[in-house]
Amino acid sequence: MRIIGNILWLILGGFEAAIGYFTGSLALAITIIGIPFALQTFKIGLLCLWPFGAKIKKGDTPPGCIRIPMNIIWIICGGLVACLSHILFGLLLCITIIGIPFGKQHFKMAGLSLTPFGRDVELHS
Asked: What values do phi and psi take at 56, rounded to 5?
């Protein structure tokens, strides 16, 4: 079921969303200051490519005082908009019974796109 869901996801808009995140990641990586943010948008783009079976877990890095300020900057500079758009699409997809699994994936991405620093994406096939 995961493979079928991921293939349908890619065909019905997941590939375009991932391209958008990867393009944003490339634009952020051009600046030196934007590299940490580029890594986070790349992480979300990977989740957009293969969301079914992927898990979001807390990072293995030791906790530090840099995560909170980076997440606050992230939220102010676009993370809130990305989160709200994933919530909107998740709600729209959950209107139909067939769209509920896809809506759940958008809710998963909404959580990651709100505060990506300190979280890792574990992809499974």
From this structure: -105, 125
Sign of CA pseudo-dihedral 46, 47, 49, 55: positive
Q: What are the tens digits of pLDDT across the range 21-59?
A: 999 999 999 998 999 999 999 999 999 998 998 999 887
Packed helices 35-49 and 15-30: angle between N→C axes, nearest 10 degrees? 170
Cα distance between residue 23 and residue 32, in whole Å: 16
Backbone region of residue 31 per phi and psi (left: phi > 0; alpha: psi in -120 to 50; beta: other values): beta
Residue with tokens 């509920």: 100
Does pTM surpass 0.85? yes
